[in-house]
């Protein structure tokens, strides 16, 4: 199979002929239909993720078609179109039994701890516990974004912060996670304000229905959010994993507000200095979130398939496997609006 392999940090990914994976007992192999290029892949590319060793095939936002089935799989057969979370749980431990697959101690992460989906084929262990059928109404390029950004945001808003209709949602960072938060927040009935430093991203957010936008390069962004929302947001989503934006998210909240850390803190931002006086005086709640269990996919997929939320504006670039390096490098600076998805694995 063709795969994009990383052999040195920040080096161009090499398009190589790799061995086809075989399904493990209980697992399947997918022909990758689409794979998103995410900021978390950039952390892999730069060497900021301690779980990754080289050489390595990144890529964790994928959907695919089952092409091989391992012994013991009961729910899936060849030809099924499926989607998987980027955290693949064992399905058998106490945490999995309690529905908390994202903290499974035996988890496998394609693109991080296992070969990923910047390739024509990818292996998925524990298929019965991890795969969800992909509705025909959801195209592969959109489904790829559901593997990480959209599902992580959905879990952040509904499973962690319990965003309610009529509340203000502040989205700090207008990239892929931020656009997903904007679209899903509006679908849940919230009023949404988006903060970024890139004018194009703010214009993009307005076009997608943001109730307000704030240019963080033009002054105190948190103060601007508080002014625009009449005292602060009820919920804030931090979408970058950076100390400054995390502080902005906390300071943007009204008293008793909730902040969800969606952006991945890595490298220099793994340890942050934050305004704990604001947390204390405002009696704020801080939630961490990472991925979403597979059992929570169906309601979100039903929402998309029924047309109650249109996530298609997220995908602004359909690219070939050979173009992944350029998209990763773009995260070194303010990236363009929307997300890139690999849909051509032959070029």
| Annotation, overall tally of beta strands | 15
Write out the CATH superfamily name of the largest domain.
Medium-chain alcohol dehydrogenases, catalytic domain
Radius of gyration: 19 Å
CA distance, first residue to last residue: 13 Å
In this structure, how is the largest beta sheet organized? 7 strands, mixed
Mean pLDDT: 95
Number of domains: 2
Q: Please report the first level of CATH classification, the CATH class of the largest domain.
A: Alpha Beta
CATH architectural type of the largest domain: Alpha-Beta Complex
Q: Helices and strands, in N-to-C order?
A: EEEHEEHEHEHHEHEHEHEHEHEHEHE
Percent strand: 15-25%
Ranges with pLDDT <50 over ≥5 residues?
none
**Would you tell me the structural class of the helices and strands?**
alpha/beta
The portion of residues assigned to helices is 25-40%
Instruction: Give the number of helices.
Output: 12
Shape: globular
Protein name: Alcohol dehydrogenase
GO molecular function, one term: zinc ion binding
InterPro entries: ADH-like_C, ADH-like_N, ADH_Zn_CS, ER, GroES-like_sf, NAD(P)-bd_dom_sf, Zn_alcohol_dh
Pfam family, one: ADH_zinc_N
Task: Lay out the secondary structure.
Elements: E1 2-5, E2 14-17, E3 28-37, H1 39-46, E4 61-69, E5 81-83, H2 94-97, E6 121-124, H3 127-130, E7 132-133, H4 140-145, H5 149-160, E8 168-172, H6 176-187, E9 191-196, H7 199-207, E10 212-215, H8 221-228, E11 233-238, H9 243-251, E12 253-261, H10 276-282, E13 285-288, H11 297-305, E14 315-320, H12 324-330, E15 339-344
Parallel strand pairs: 8-9, 8-11, 9-10, 11-12, 12-13, 14-15
Antiparallel strand pairs: 1-2, 3-4, 3-6, 3-15, 4-5, 5-7
Helix pairs in contact: 5-6, 8-9
């Amino acid at each position: 199979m063709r795969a994009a392999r990383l052999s040195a940090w920040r080096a161009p990914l090499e398009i190589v002929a790799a061995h086809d994976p075989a399904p493990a007992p209980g697992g399947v192999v997918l022909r990758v239909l689409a794979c998103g290029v995410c900021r978390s892949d950039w952390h892999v590319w730069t060497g900021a993720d301690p779980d990754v060793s080289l050489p390595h095939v990144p890529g964790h936002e994928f959907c695919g078609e089952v092409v091989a089935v391992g012994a013991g799989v009961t729910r899936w057969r060849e030809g099924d179109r499926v989607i998987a979370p980027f955290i693949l749980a064992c399905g058998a431990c106490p945490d999995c039994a309690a529905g908390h697959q994202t903290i499974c101690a035996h988890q496998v992460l394609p693109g991080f701890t296992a070969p990923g989906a910047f390739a024509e084929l990818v292996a998925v262990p524990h298929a019965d516990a991890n795969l969800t059928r992909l509705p025909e109404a959801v195209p592969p390029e959109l489904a790829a974004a559901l593997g990480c950004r959209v599902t992580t945001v959905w879990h952040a808003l509904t499973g962690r912060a319990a965003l309610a209709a009529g509340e203000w949602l502040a989205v700090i960072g207008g990239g892929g996670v931020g656009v997903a938060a904007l679209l899903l927040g509006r679908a849940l009935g919230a009023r949404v304000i988006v903060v970024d430093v890139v004018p194009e991203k703010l214009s993009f957010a307005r076009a997608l229905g943001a109730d307000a936008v704030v240019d963080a390069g033009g002054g105190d962004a948190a103060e601007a959010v508080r002014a625009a929302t009449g005292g602060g947001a009820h919920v804030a989503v931090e979408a970058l994993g950076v100390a400054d934006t995390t502080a902005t998210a906390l300071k943007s909240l009204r008293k008793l507000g909730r902040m969800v850390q969606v952006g991945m803190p890595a490298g220099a931002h793994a340890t942050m200095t934050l305004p704990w006086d604001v947390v204390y005086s405002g009696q704020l709640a801080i939630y961490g979130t990472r991925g979403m269990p597979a059992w929570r996919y169906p309601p979100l997929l039903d929402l998309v398939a029924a047309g109650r939320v249109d996530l298609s504006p997220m995908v602004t670039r359909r690219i070939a496997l050979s173009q992944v390096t350029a998209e990763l490098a773009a995260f070194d600076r303010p990236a363009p609006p929307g997300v890139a998805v690999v849909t051509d694995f032959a070029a």
